[in-house]
Amino acid sequence: MPREIIQFNEVWKTYALGETEVHALRGLSFTLFEGDHVSIMGPSGSGKTTLLNILGCLDRPTQGKYILGNEDISNLNDDQLSDIRSRRLGYIFQSYNLIPQLTVLENIGLPLFYQGIDETIVRDKSSLLAEKVGLRDRKNHRPYELSGGQQQRVAIARALVNEPLLILADEPTGNLDSATGKEIMDMLDELNHEGKTLVLVTHDPKISEHSRRVLRILDGALDVSR
Predict the structure, then answer these.
(1) How far apart are CA 195 and CA 216, in angstroms?
(2) Mean pLDDT (whole number) for 77-95
(3) In order of start, what are the domains of the chain with their CATH numbers?
């Protein structure tokens, strides 16, 4: 039986807009397991981004518990959440979020650099990952010298460099043409087959077909009607 790596228990997220309370998440409860491949879907304003931010330790619940691995991170402070992000999570963004002044290798190794890991180790690991994602001949290029698909491959390698417990992908093919998007999804599928746990936010049913589970969010709650 795969081990549980994420538990959401009655998670609420409430924002105050003047005297009005907005409930972005309304009592979400679910469990994700090691090796899961999950898509989060829902209309604009449904709470997908809020959910992703909490999963990614960029925000914390107003109420309820979020267990990542065996650690309750619901009430951690900003520094503690930052540490969790650098050690246990990998991110893939629609807009790649690469630093334009840095090379492919430097962008890949950035999460380890921030952890203070030895420069030689960072470079060696980054080099192996660049080769893994098909960028052997682009290691010293900068983002503006790469295609969109190549930039997303850099982002995937960066997401892997800290050997994360969970990889979060926010519309990972949103800026790519259909052929390049398929290449990226095939690469993510292969990572999942290797045992990586993936959570994707997408509005595209074709992307969600790659997942084994779909969490549909509607008005901040799980939509169990479909």
Answers:
(1) 24
(2) 92
(3) 36-60+76-222 (3.40.50.300)
